[in-house]
Amino acid sequence: xxxxxxxxxxxxxxxxxxxxxxxxxxxxxxxxxxxxxxxxxxxxxxxxxxxxxxxxxxxxxxxxxxxxxxxxxxxxxxxxxxxxxxxxxxxxxxxxxxxxxxxxxxxxxxxxxxxxxxxxxxxxxxxxxxxxxxxxxxxxxxxxxxxxxxxxxxxxxxxxxxxxxxxxxxxxxxxxxxxxxxxxxxxxxxxxxxxxxxxxxxxxxxxxxxxxxxxxxxxxxxxxxxxxxxxxxxxxxxxxxxxxxxxxxx
Length: 250
Fold this sequence. Notes:
This protein is α/β, with parallel strands linked by helices. Helices cover 36% and strands 18% of the residues. A hairpin with a 2-residue loop joins strand 5 and strand 6.
């Protein structure tokens, strides 16, 4: 049950018929793995911690650079050269001491991911690395864990919600391993609020999923054009030959 301090902290959630005490307890008992604590992971982790998600696994091996401060809202000049995972844990603990925060200051790959994904009810891909994205996708499908993928570059954002139990394609169906990352924030740039928008939507869909509120757009790639302020969506079909979600993978 919720404590008196939790009733006060989450009072605006409790007023919502769709959430209420039952939904808040679901958040309290949930565990979410966030891989990547940059421009996407910063706002996503802040809102999930503020919402009262019981356990947040915060995974990032990188250190904070001055160029990060344009869009990575968890950090400031006093955080420079420090480990993102550790600083994120410290900042989020101050935001909400009611939640458990686990800093994972190491690289994620297909071998190390399995144990962390197993601990989570939901995974957020907030990375900017194609190899890690493919490994996350494969691990989540192998363990049947839902995955929220975010991406942003220049004035463009993407959001993709994947549920291994549903009949839609996975990240591997959409982007094969032969596709290389030619453009990154480091060489192509990104406008800060676009990254924040996608990270916030990852947090929103996570809260909806964990509380059973509304409809999560499973299997639909959402594309955001910030310059025109337009959204487009397309369904991701399942590739029958996909080694991750196809017959061979399952």
